[in-house]
């Protein structure tokens, strides 16, 4: 297999090194001196780089693209809003309630909502609201979960450097420099699907726990999912201890079902965060929940403060209104699930052909691929999978025009426009890529 040459992309990275640390606007976009991707355009389910290689994209900007890139139904709604109303005013418009009412029609867990500009901001708002409501500080988080780039949640379970045969839990380390130790003071980590660990944490800290913050399906950890029983346990333990359950649906919301992961479990959070699929790529986010909890946001002396200059701007809300309307009124999510199933089936045929033990985690719209015999139940289990083989397979796919994150902790994202791809071509490319990956191993 020959690796495509990237003279334009490499020249762009050289230029960008003079302008940005690592030559990129987000550190995770730096894939090394030879492989950092610079795009010239995106359309449907494809992206084209500056060297004119087009890829079928399963990365989808880490999940926001749910319909397809440059979906005219959404883009035209945005153009209409900004040319007939304006982009931002620092005041309210009726669009605020239009979007909240749409969300409420899809998500019974939402009575009231507030907007944000990113998933990170939505999580900050939800956690602050939970603390204001409960008058407690501690937050329980799950190993392998990701909740954005704000100091308090930038602590991770160091499974990469963990000895899986050891008795000890993986070390909890900061994402890097600049994160004060004090930001960990109010946080406790538990492994997913471990009921005993939750009982132990509540036995020790129960009266101090403001909330459990969890991605029900870990969109940043190979779509490893909470079991039904574990989710019920979290709901029950929160109820019993006066703590809130915050479900971070930044990746799962409006993607895995119209009502997000909560619709799949039938178990509802007190507070929920949304972003990504909500705006088909436009930067919109939100958090919301029960009215009595959300009304903690107030001008009372101990009321929670929330807002921001760009909150509920017209670009974001017009995109959200159009996207949510389409998701509500069309069968886009059924189409996505259907394509996702077909892709898993073809991948499974390829893996079986090469004798690679494999399993899929999570829903069809964002499934994780794991090389191992059993679906991981938590982040520690992921360590037992053959993620090196996955990475080699993924890098070969990229060379062959299929874009995805080379790390198996990032799921395959499907959008409505993927219904147009040639599945025979994808199967052929997957075969070539696995054959070459096995030869490298
Ligand atoms: C579950 C979850 N929460 C929060 C975030 C942070 O969102 P953003 O990157 O928009 O700040 C992400 C981003 O991937 C996420 O997946």
List keywords for this structure.
single chain; 441 residues; alpha/beta; Aspartate Aminotransferase, domain 1; Aspartate Aminotransferase, domain 2; 2 domains; 7-stranded mixed sheet; 4-stranded mixed sheet; 13 helices; 16% strand; globular; binds pyridoxal-5'-phosphate
Helix % is: 25-40%
CATH topology of the largest domain: Aspartate Aminotransferase, domain 2
Distinct small molecules: pyridoxal-5'-phosphate
Uncertain segments of ≥5 residues (pLDDT<50)? none
Summarize the entry for a quick read.
The protein has 441 residues and is α/β, with parallel strands linked by helices.
How would you describe this protein?
Helices cover 37% and strands 16% of the residues. The chain has helices at residues 7-17, 72-84, 94-106, 119-134, 195-205, 228-241, 260-265, 291-294, 314-329, 332-353, 379-382, 387-399, 423-440, and strands at residues 39-43, 46-49, 54-57, 112-116, 138-142, 155-157, 172-174, 187-190, 209-214, 217-218, 224-225, 244-248, 271-274, 285-289, 359-361, 366-370, 402-403, 412-413. Strand 1 (39-43) and strand 2 (46-49) form a beta hairpin. The protein is globular. The two termini are 15 Å apart. The structure holds pyridoxal-5'-phosphate. Pyridoxal-5'-phosphate is lined by residues 62, 118-120, 123, 146-148, 215, 219-220, 248, 250-251, 275.
């Amino acid at each position: 297999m020959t690796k495509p040459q990237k003279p334009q992309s490499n020249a762009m990275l050289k230029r960008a090194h003079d302008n940005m640390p690592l030559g990129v606007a987000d550190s995770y976009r730096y894939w090394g001196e030879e492989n950092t991707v610079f795009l010239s355009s995106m359309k449907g389910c494809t992206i084209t780089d500056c060297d004119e290689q087009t890829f079928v994209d399963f990365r989808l900007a880490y999940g926001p693209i749910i319909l397809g890139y440059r979906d005219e139904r959404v883009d035209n709604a945005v153009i209409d809003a900004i040319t007939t109303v304006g982009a931002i005013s620092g005041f309210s418009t009726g669009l605020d309630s239009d979007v909240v009412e749409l969300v409420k029609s899809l998500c019974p867990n939402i009575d009231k909502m507030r907007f944000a500009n990113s998933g990170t901001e939505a999580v900050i708002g939800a956690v602050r609201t939970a603390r204001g409501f409960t008058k407690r500080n501690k937050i329980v988080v799950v190993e392998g979960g990701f909740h954005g780039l704000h100091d308090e949640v930038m602590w991770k379970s160091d499974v990469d450097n963990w000895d899986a045969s050891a008795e000890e839990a993986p070390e909890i380390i900061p994402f890097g420099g600049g994160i004060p130790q004090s930001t960990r003071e109010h946080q406790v980590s538990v492994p997913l699907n471990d009921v005993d660990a939750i009982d132990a944490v509540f036995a020790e800290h129960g009266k101090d726990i403001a909330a459990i913050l969890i991605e029900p399906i870990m969109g940043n950890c190979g779509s490893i999912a909470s079991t039904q029983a574990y989710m019920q346990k979290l709901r029950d333990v929160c109820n019993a201890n006066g703590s809130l359950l915050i479900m971070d649906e930044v990746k799962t919301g409006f993607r895995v079902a119209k009502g997000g992961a909560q619709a799949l479990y039938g178990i509802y959070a007190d507070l929920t965060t949304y972003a990504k699929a909500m705006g088909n790529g436009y930067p919109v986010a939100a958090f919301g929940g029960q009215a009595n909890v959300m009304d903690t946001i107030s001008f009372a002396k101990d009321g929670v403060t929330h807002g921001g200059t760009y909150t509920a701007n017209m670009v974001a809300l017009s995109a959200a209104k159009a996207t949510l309307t389409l998701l509500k009124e069309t069968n886009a999510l059924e189409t996505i699930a259907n394509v996702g199933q077909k892709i898993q089936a073809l991948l499974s045929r390829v893996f079986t052909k090469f004798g690679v033990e494999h399993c899929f985690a999570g829903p069809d719209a964002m499934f994780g691929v794991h090389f191992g015999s059993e679906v991981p139940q938590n982040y520690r289990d992921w360590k037992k999978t053959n993620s090196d083989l996955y990475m080699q397979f993924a890098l070969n796919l990229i060379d062959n025009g299929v874009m995805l994150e080379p790390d198996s902790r990032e799921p395959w994202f499907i959008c409505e426009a993927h219904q147009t791809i040639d599945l025979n071509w994808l199967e052929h490319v997957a075969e070539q890529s696995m054959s070459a990956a096995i030869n490298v191993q």
